[in-house]
What we know:
GO terms for molecular function: ATP binding; ATP-dependent peptidase activity; serine-type endopeptidase activity. It comes from Modicella reniformis. Keywords: Hydrolase, Protease, Serine protease. The protein is of the alpha/beta class and 132 residues long. It is built from 5 helices and 5 strands; from the N terminus they run αααβββαβαβ. The longest helix is centred in the first third of the chain and has 13 residues, at 2-14. The model has no long low-confidence stretch (mean pLDDT 91).
Amino acid sequence: MKESAHIALNYIKSNHKKFGIDLEMFSQNGIHIHAPEGATPKEGPSAGIALTSAIISALTDQTISQEIGMTGEITLHGHVGEIGGLKEKAIAAHRSQLKTIIIPKFNEKDIEEIPAEIQQELKIILVEEYDE
Length: 132
């Protein structure tokens, strides 16, 4: 989780103009991301695009719809990487009454594992790059 947060923050800093964020915002403010029980080294990589979106949202006062969920690793260049457990994450999103989930394009092959009734009710958006 810690590494995902660092990558998300560094990606945002590198692309601050694209997101409408003044670079001085980073030197004038401390950014603290609290993730209880996120200290297990393997936990958290799939939270990359969600962490990136949350930080951008906080820095720009742009809200993200509560009906959207997202999962995917992010690289320093903004590529969205494959995740594990897509079926379980989609079921959890559906139970949480989300309407849309954003997932890595690399996981397109895993969509067939999601129960058909959930596939019908969830809009699934595939992305390769964060900008998408």
